[in-house]
Write a structure and sequence with these properties.
about 240 residues, alpha+beta, seven-stranded mixed sheet, 9 helices, about 45% helix, globular
Length: about 240
C-alpha cells in the first residue's frame, strides 16, 4: 500500500513542470538529438546490460554513442516519446521504439558494432548480444503472443536528476495509449523492466508478464550497475486491443 501511495505521489509531482511530447518524423527526431544526448549517455551507463561495457563511459565511446543516437533517430519511423522540462528547457526522459518482426534475426546490439571499438569493448558488446540471442532462443515471444510484428520500447531512460518523480510511468502510459491508436500493423507492444517500480507501473497499465530472465546467467553479470538491485529482466507485453 505504501508503495502504491508513493507511486501516485510521484505521478502528481511530475505533472507540474514536465510535459510529455510525441515526435514521429525522422527529421524532427534527428533535430532533437542534441537535447537527448545527456540522458542517452546516462542510459548506457546505468542500464544493467549496457553498463557492463566500460568503453561506453570513455570519451571515444561517448562519441560513438552520439553517432548511434543519430543513427537510431533517423532510421526508424516509430513514434518517439519524451519528457520535456518546461522550466529548464531540457529533455528529462525518453522512450525510443523499434519494430521487430517474426522473420527478423535477433541482432540487438548490431547498430553499435558499426563503430570503432577496442578488442575488449567488442568482446563486452558481444557478451550482451549473446545474452539477448539466448533470451530469444529460450522464449519464442512471437509464438507466445501469436503475433507477427511487435513494437519494442527499446531505449528507455529518465535522467538521473528526474528519477523518482513518476516520469517513467507517464512515458510508458503515453506509449501504450499511442500504440492502441496506431495503424502500423503492430500486434503487441513490449517493454523490458529491471526496475521494481517500473514493473509495477506496467502491471497497473494493463501489461502482462511475458517472461523473466535472471541477469546472473549473463557473462559480466557482476559488472552491471547495481547488479544486486536489478537482478532480473522482465519482458512485459500488451496486445493491440488488450
Amino acid at each position: 500500500m505504501e508503495g502504491e501511495t508513493a507511486e501516485r505521489n510521484a505521478d502528481l509531482t511530475s505533472q507540474s513542470s514536465i510535459e510529455i511530447k510525441i515526435v514521429q518524423s525522422r527529421s524532427e527526431k534527428v533535430a532533437l538529438a542534441k537535447a537527448f544526448l545527456s540522458p542517452w549517455l546516462q542510459f548506457f551507463a546505468d542500464d544493467p546490460l549496457f553498463s557492463t561495457v566500460d568503453a561506453y563511459r570513455t570519451k571515444e565511446g561517448e562519441k560513438n554513442l552520439e553517432a548511434l543516437l543519430e543513427h537510431v533517430l533517423k532510421n526508424d519511423d516509430n513514434p518517439c516519446v519524451y519528457a520535456w522540462d518546461v522550466n529548464k528547457n531540457q529533455v528529462s526522459g525518453f522512450i525510443v521504439q523499434n519494430t521487430y518482426a517474426v522473420d527478423d534475426v535477433i541482432t540487438d546490439t548490431t547498430p553499435v558494432k558499426q563503430y570503432n571499438w577496442s578488442e575488449t569493448a567488442s568482446s563486452d558488446i558481444d557478451k550482451i548480444n549473446d545474452f539477448v540471442v539466448k533470451m530469444g532462443n529460450q522464449f519464442n515471444l512471437f509464438s507466445q503472443l501469436g503475433a507477427q510484428k511487435v513494437l519494442l520500447m527499446r531505449y528507455v531512460n529518465v535522467a538521473r536528476e528526474y528519477r523518482g518523480q513518476g516520469i517513467m510511468g507517464r512515458l510508458v502510459a503515453t506509449c501504450l495509449s499511442e500504440f492502441q491508436k496506431q495503424q502500423r500493423g503492430h500486434e503487441a507492444i513490449l517493454a523490458g523492466c529491471s526496475n521494481y517500480y517500473v514493473h509495477r507501473k506496467c502491471l497497473r497499465l494493463g501489461m502482462k508478464l511475458l517472461f523473466e530472465l535472471d541477469y546472473s546467467e549473463m557473462d559480466n553479470y557482476k559488472k552491471m550497475a547495481d547488479y544486486q538491485t536489478h537482478s532480473k529482466l522482465r519482458l512485459m507485453a500488451l496486445k493491440c486491443g488488450g
